[in-house]
């Protein structure tokens, strides 16, 4: 509702269909409803003490603590992942390098069965002269 100057400045002078102005129309309503509203507000105030409003500062401090805890947990988890990756890499690199201790050379494989047939050389006939 505009109570200042401008479009709504002439509102008090407007009349409704019955010819009453805004001031006359709302004056009767104000008198009737003032007593009802006053009684309703008194009932609300007499119902009991209002609950205390939470402190904005306390909420901000609690939120800051929660953020710091979360940040610390994420940093620790990240450090743990890096450590596990480092250990895994070190173990894999150590396994892939040859040992500095000399190992005995492997013996050639021994056959488990002896050959049953020995091929015999076939003599080729000499060509006839002539």
Structural account:
With 130 residues, this protein is mainly α. The protein is 51% helix and 0% strand. The protein contains 2 helices and no strands. It has helices spanning 22-46, 56-96. Mean pLDDT is 76; it is low at 1-12.
Helices and strands in order:
Elements lengths: L21 H25 L9 H41 L34
Offer a quick outline of the entry.
The chain is mainly α and 130 residues long. It has helices spanning 22-46, 56-96. The model is unreliable at 1-12 (pLDDT under 50).
Give the ordered list of helices and strands.
HH
What is the number of beta strands? 0
Strand content: under 5%
What's the overall average pLDDT, rounded? 76
Radius of gyration: 52 Å
The first-to-last residue Cα distance is 139 Å
Structural class: mainly alpha
Largest sheet properties:
none
Low-confidence stretches: 1-12
The global form is rod-shaped
Helices, by number, come to: 2
Q: Which percent bin holds the helix content?
A: 40-55%
Which features does this protein show?
single chain; 130 residues; mainly alpha; 51% helix; rod-shaped
């Amino acid at each position: 509702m505009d109570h200042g100057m401008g479009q709504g400045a002439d509102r008090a002078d407007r009349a409704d269909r019955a010819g009453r102005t805004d001031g006359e129309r709302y004056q009767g309503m104000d008198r009737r409803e003032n007593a009802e509203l006053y009684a309703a507000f008194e009932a609300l105030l007499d119902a009991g003490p209002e609950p205390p409003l939470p402190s904005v500062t306390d909420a901000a401090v609690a939120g800051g603590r929660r953020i710091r805890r979360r940040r610390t947990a994420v940093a620790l988890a990240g450090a743990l992942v890096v450590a596990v990756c480092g250990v895994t890499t070190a173990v894999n690199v150590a396994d892939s390098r040859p040992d500095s201790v000399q190992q005995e050379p492997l013996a050639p494989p021994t056959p488990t069965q002896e050959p049953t047939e020995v091929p015999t050389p076939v003599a080729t006939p000499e060509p006839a002269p002539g």
